[in-house]
């Protein structure tokens, strides 16, 4: 089983990126690469080789589902687990996002104190440990 160490976080909102980075790096001891757009994520993801991708759904230009499609087309990222983060968490929307290949969906706003635990639980549920 693979240990979760490297997380790619794709989020257009500066404040959310900063909060998530502090939580994941300081509380979770993860190595984190942050991207402000889907295009940036597609350019940098393969070189970073993330274990997990946290992906915002609604972003200007290229949205989360489009970004996921682009990431999946790259060697080395086809099977990387993806978790969408979105304020749109109606059951139909969650099912649609999972249908695109996400292993789970986290609601925004999220509780900073429980974010690492949520990510670890999703990682374990997906058949990984660490």
Give the biggest sheet.
5 strands, parallel
The geometry reads as globular
What is the number of domains? 1
Tally of extended strands? 5
Mean pLDDT: 95
Supply Rg.
13 Å
Strand content: 15-25%
**CATH-defined fold name:** Rossmann fold
CATH superfamily: Response regulator
Distance between the termini: 8 Å
Helix/sheet category:
alpha/beta
Q: Strand order, biggest sheet?
A: 2-1-3-4-5
**What string, H for helix and E for strand, traces the elements in order?**
EHEHEHEHEH
Write the layout of secondary structure elements.
Layout: E1 6-10, H1 14-27, E2 31-35, H2 38-48, E3 52-56, H3 64-72, E4 82-86, H4 91-99, E5 104-107, H5 115-125
Folded structure, characterized:
This protein is an alpha/beta fold. It has a single domain, classed as Response regulator (Rossmann fold), CATH 3.40.50. The protein has five helices and five strands. A five-stranded parallel sheet has the order 2-1-3-4-5, sandwiched between helices. Helix 2 runs parallel beside helix 3.
Outline of the structure:
By secondary structure, the chain is of the alpha/beta class.
Keywords:
130 residues; alpha/beta
């Amino acid at each position: 089983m693979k240990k979760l160490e490297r997380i790619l976080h794709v989020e257009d909102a500066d404040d959310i990126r900063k909060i998530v980075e502090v939580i994941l790096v300081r509380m979770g001891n993860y190595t984190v690469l942050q991207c402000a757009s889907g295009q940036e994520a597609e350019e940098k993801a393969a070189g970073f080789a993330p274990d997990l991708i946290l992906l915002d759904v609604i972003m200007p230009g290229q949205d989360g589902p489009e970004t996921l499609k682009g990431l999946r087309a790259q060697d080395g990222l086809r099977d990387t687990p993806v978790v969408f983060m979105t304020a749109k968490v109606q059951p139909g929307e969650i099912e649609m996002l999972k249908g695109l290949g996400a292993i789970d969906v986290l609601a925004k706003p999220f509780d900073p104190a429980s974010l690492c635990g949520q990510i670890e639980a999703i990682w374990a549920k997906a058949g990984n440990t660490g």
